[in-house]
Design brief:
This protein has helices at 7-34, 41-50, 56-81, 89-103, 111-117, 122-157, 164-187, 197-207, 209-236, 243-258, 267-280, 286-313, and strands at residues 191-192, 195-196. By secondary structure, it is mainly alpha-helical. Keywords: Membrane, Transmembrane, Transmembrane helix.
């Protein structure tokens, strides 16, 4: 159907799609800033001003950490794709930021898969989707491992009221579902993001140990950067927790937030609610916690997606067939 349309009609619809993506991204950023029920936007900016977040030193350092975060992600994407195609840094930059903008308002940023794949010709797209999935699995692995360690320390450090009877019952249910799932997987082809488990395992086997190890190292570096940025913002807001105390809560927060399906617009709401509970055990008040969550979102998602809008608007239709 696409090939049967006149060239000018294709161009018109493609421009319309690009504008829709950009307008949608800007609307979601605006919505995030003006309609966060748990935090008044004027109070938020006044709180930042009172804590000298807008000083030259702090502004430069925070933007530098966000830039470093995305620099590592761009290098990681360039490395992951290297098995299929050699990318320049700027090509990896365009694909990373452009796909961020396109995926901003999709559940669990699933739009990132299609946005990155569209930069490649049809024979490569399935492998690009799979490569992107592998990259996300690497990042999730680091989040789960460090988050699991952090949550274990959190449980030992802070008083948490846990109903062990309910947990035991929940574990029993989970084990039952897991056993039934394993039986089902053996009889059917279970898929993740459209790829069978076997295909993912086979693809991982072809990549090699060095490839996977370096990918995990880059994922760890990115995790270390944004978790330190989180801690630095807490310090700016007058939170007196030490780095080890803060990192235990931060890793626990990202672990719990990562397992809850959500759309990026609700990311602040989900993380904010979890952060209030987790930091509350350490006697940290709500305002600095919520302000930290919103500022992290603005620095690491909203700001890069604004730059990504440039690449979305300048994406050339001819790239689809190049």
């Amino acid at each position: 159907m696409h090939s049967s349309l006149p060239y000018k009609t294709k161009q018109f619809f493609f421009v319309l799609i690009k504008l829709s993506i950009v307008v949608g991204a800007f609307y979601f950023i605006y919505h995030k800033l003006t309609r966060t029920d748990s935090l008044d936007v004027n109070g938020f900016f006044q709180f930042l001003k009172d804590n000298k977040v807008f000083s030259i030193k702090n502004s430069v350092l925070l933007v530098f950490l966000s830039s470093l975060n995305w620099f590592i992600e761009i290098i990681k994407w360039r490395f992951l794709v290297s098995k299929l195609k050699a990318l320049t840094f700027f090509e990896a930059l365009e694909q990373s930021l452009g796909s961020l903008t396109a995926s901003l308002f999709t559940p669990n940023r699933i739009g990132e898969y299609g946005a990155k794949a569209i930069y490649y010709s049809k024979p490569y797209r399935k492998r690009i989707l799979l490569t992107n999935l592998i990259g996300n699995i690497m990042q999730m692995t680091i989040t789960i491992v460090l988050g699991g360690i952090g949550f274990a320390f959190y449980y030992k450090t802070y008083p948490i009221s846990i109903d062990f009877f309910k947990i035991s019952r929940g574990i029993l249910i989970i084990l039952s579902v897991a056993i039934l799932s394993i039986i089902g997987i053996k009889k059917t082809k279970y898929k993740i993001k459209g790829f069978s488990i076997k295909k993912i395992k086979d693809y991982l086997a072809t990549l090699g140990t060095n490839y996977i190890t370096l990918g995990l190292c880059l994922s760890f570096l990115r995790y270390a950067v944004f978790s330190f940025q989180f801690y630095y913002i807490l310090i700016l807001f007058g939170i007196t927790l030490s780095y080890p105390e803060s990192i235990v809560i931060i890793t626990s927060l990202y672990l719990l937030a990562s397992i809850i399906p959500t759309i990026s617009i609700f990311d602040v709401v989900i993380k904010g609610s979890l952060a209030i509970y987790l930091f509350g055990a350490a006697n940290v008040t709500e305002l600095p916690v919520l302000s930290c969550i919103l500022l992290m979102w603005l620095l690491n998602f909203a700001l890069p997606s604004i730059f990504g809008s440039y690449y979305v608007l300048n994406f050339n239709l001819s790239k689809l067939n190049s």
